[in-house]
Design goal:
Layout (H helix, E strand, L loop, with lengths): L1 H15 L2 H11 L5 H23 L2 H8 L5 H23 L16 H15 L4 H13 L3 H15 L1 H13 L4 H40 L1
Length: 220
């Protein structure tokens, strides 16, 4: 149980450094009101938690067992195609990168509903490719814990996942106007560095998947 908890916590903290949530969070934090950031955080947490619980108590076990039976040429074709898709994403990220020195864009207020919808929408789009999250859910299922324990682990994962947003919200609320300049600068830098890092990781992952798939197809 301790090992499983440590696994959940470590993966959640690594997964929390996600530019798809951190960059919009920084942008919302620099808006005139901080309420948008709180709603955005709630949207991220709600959808990611709901998706995990649906997999955990719904079709998760069946889907994971089914994946274990995909072998042979079909498995290698999926790996090769997946590698090509990830490489395409890497190229798109690289081409869309922006300079960290660009002029800051004008900030505007967001309604709580629109900020919540933004967070929920981002996570709904990302959920089908949340491989780190799927790995944790698979580990929880494999541990055969009681349902309340499984529920608590998924909730704990998501609390840690939004921890950077919660920290940013605290800084924004108690730091006042003094942190506005820092937040604006951080948003620009994180956006630029995050795109570079994501494009590099995606390129490596895509190349690895494509290579594994092609080698498997040749060996069949």
């Amino acid at each position: 149980m301790i090992a499983l908890t440590l696994l959940v916590a470590s993966v959640a903290l690594a997964d929390s450094l996600n530019p798809s949530t951190v960059i919009p969070g920084l942008w919302l934090a620099s808006a005139p009101a901080a309420g948008g950031l709180a709603s955005f955080t709630l949207g991220v947490f709600s959808v990611y938690t709901a998706g995990g619980l649906v997999l955990l108590f719904g079709p998760g076990r069946v889907l994971i067992n089914a994946l274990h039976h995909f072998h042979g040429p079909f498995e290698h074709v999926v790996e090769a195609v997946g590698g090509l898709l990830v490489l395409a994403v890497a190229v798109a990220l690289w081409r869309s990168r922006t300079s960290g020195d660009e002029q800051p864009r004008a900030r505007r207020s967001y309604t709580r509903a629109s900020a919540f919808a933004l967070g929920a929408g981002i996570m709904a789009i990302e959920l089908p490719t949340a491989f780190m999250y799927f790995g944790v859910i698979s580990a929880i299922l494999a541990a055969h814990q009681a349902a309340p324990v499984e529920f608590a682990l998924v909730v704990a994962y998501n609390v840690l996942f939004v921890a950077p947003l919660i920290a940013l919200l605290a800084i924004r609320r108690w730091g006042g106007a003094r942190v506005d300049g820092w937040i604006g600068s951080a948003e620009s830098r994180v956006r630029y560095v995050g795109q570079l890092a994501l494009s590099g990781v995606a390129a490596l992952a895509g190349a690895a998947l494509l290579t594994i798939g092609l080698i498997g197809l040749v060996a069949v």
